[in-house]
Design brief:
Number of helices: 16
Helix content: 55-70%
CATH class of the domain at 2-211: Mainly Alpha
CATH topology of the domain at 2-211: Catalytic domain of cyclic nucleotide phosphodiesterase 4b2b
Number of strands: 1
Bound molecules: zinc ion
Order of helices and strands: HHHHHHHHHHEHHHHHH
Distance between the termini: 27 Å
Largest sheet: none
Oligomer: single chain
Shape: globular
CATH superfamily of the domain at 2-211: 3'5'-cyclic nucleotide phosphodiesterase, catalytic domain
Length: 319
């Protein structure tokens, strides 16, 4: 099983059944989506991305460790609800992080807590430890879906100007993440975090059902406490196919197309884009079936909704 870990079609669910280990304790197993299996899945995807020649040729052992550690810990202690929910229920995390990247800040600070407790880096000088903690922070904070466009624009500009110098630590950190000094794995982590639509249909579909189940649970809670139901969280209106088509069209496709530009259309990038397109076609046909079976409705709300999905996903999404 472990010999297959570097292959894109790796079955993470089988891996979970076989091993049932990982950073598990600090993830909430009752979350349908944001649990240790998601963390393991993102880490496995990250491992595949770090092997892409365009990156691998320049990565230092520290880059690799940071990339994998950030992937494994990027959603640690996720409560299974999104930032708007934490803000409107006046959750202590929302006030602690002043309503900005609330979950991602919490994942990062929790990771630092675990790291310090483990004393994994205790042998390093203080400055180096602080530097590693900051780099982990910028990688994890980059997974905030609200910052998707910021990273995408930067990546596009770099690719257009052909000015990514992977010999330089800052550009490497950017591609691991995509920002300032020391950064190149951010983009890789962002891709790993939202790569579900690029997996084989059987796995991709399970992820879609899981994430929607988590959204619907939040919607049920909001309804129960008489709060406005958040975007994507209304089981009666927001169907899985329509949520997925919007997510793929506005969030996943643009990022993975640029990733393929960066990696230079490697077999992995082509494999991912092929899965993405095939999966989108399947969701479209499922959406179509839903519509034909509910033909008594005169207005096609779901189709209209996918048109407005980008805004909604940016407001409510948090993967
Ligand atoms: Zn995630």
């Amino acid at each position: 099983m472990l010999s297959k870990v570097g292959m894109w079609d790796f079955d993470i669910f089988l891996f979970d059944r076989l091993t049932n280990v990982m950073v598990q304790e600090d993830y909430h197993s009752q979350n349908p989506y944001h649990n240790a299996v998601h963390a393991a899945d993102v880490t496995q995807a990250m491992h595949c991305y770090l092997k892409e020649p365009k990156l691998a040729n320049f990565l230092t052992p520290l880059d690799i460790m940071l990339g994998l550690l950030a992937a494994a810990a990027h959603d640690v202690d996720h409560p299974g609800v999104n930032q708007p929910f934490l803000i409107k229920t006046k959750h202590h995390l929302a006030s602690l992080y002043q309503n900005v990247s609330v979950l991602e800040n919490h994942h990062w600070r929790s990771t630092i807590g675990m790291l310090r407790e483990s004393r994994l880096l205790a042998h390093l000088p203080k400055e180096e430890r602080q530097d590693i903690e900051q780099q982990l922070g910028s990688l994890i904070l980059a997974t905030d879906i609200n910052r998707q466009n910021e990273f995408l624009i930067r990546l596009k500009t770099h690719l257009k100007n052909q000015d990514l110098k992977l010999e330089d630590a800052p550009d490497r950190h950017f591609m691991l993440q995509v920002l300032k000094p020391k950064g190149k794995s951010k983009i890789a982590l962002k891709c790993a975090d939202i790569c579900n639509p690029c997996r084989l249909w059987e796995m991709s579909k399970q992820w879609s059902e899981r994430v929607c189940e988590e959204f619907y649970r939040q919607g049920d809670m909001e309804q129960k406490f008489d709060l406005e139901i958040s975007p994507l969280c209304n089981q009666q209106k927001d169907t899985i196919p329509s949520i997925q088509i919007g997510f793929m069209t506005y969030i996943v496709e643009p990022l993975f197309e640029e990733w393929a530009n960066f990696t230079g259309n490697t077999p992995l990038s082509e494999n991912m884009l092929n899965h993405l397109r095939r999966n989108k076609t399947k969701w479209r046909s499922l959406l179509h079936k839903q519509h034909s079976s509910s033909s008594s409705r005169s207005t096609d709300h779901s189709v209209q909704k996918t048109e407005n999905e980008e805004q909604t996903l940016n407001e409510g999404g948090t993967l």
